[in-house]
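In this section we walk through a basic example: taking a raw amino acid sequence and producing a predicted 3D structure, encoded as discrete structure tokens. The instruction is simple. Fold the sequence below.
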Amino acid sequence: MQKSTLLKVISILFIIFGALSVISALGAFADNAAFGALGIISSILSILTAALELSAGILGIQKKDNLALCKKLAIGLIVLVIVNGVLNSMVVNGIAAVAGLDSSIGLAAGVTTGLISMIFGLLFPVLYLIGAVISKSSNQNTPQ
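The resulting token sequence is shown next.
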């Protein structure tokens, strides 16, 4: 069972950034709770996403044949990043409304923030998924 270099590199990055994200998300929990239910839900999703990143990183560098699980984790991370991006948009829009800004400014700021966080947040999970698919296809083509 040979895993692709892309999967291994992204797995190592997931371990590093996942560990840092767990610490950061736990530290920001109290601050986000000040924004009410959306802030708490966003914090819980951030902690869950960070834990899944850490798990995906560990599974990606293991020697075991766990590519199906790696693909499921990548898809789960992609879904969580999208949901978290939408929630972040709503939180930023709510903050702008509380600050007394025009609703169009709050909406523009929320959408921009959500899109930027989704684009950067999707980068590693998509590359991880591609690495898992490459690994699976290269293992199927290898004679045994």
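Looking at the output, two observations stand out. The chain is about 85% helix and 0% strand. The two ends are 10 Å apart (CA to CA). In the next section we compare this with other chains.
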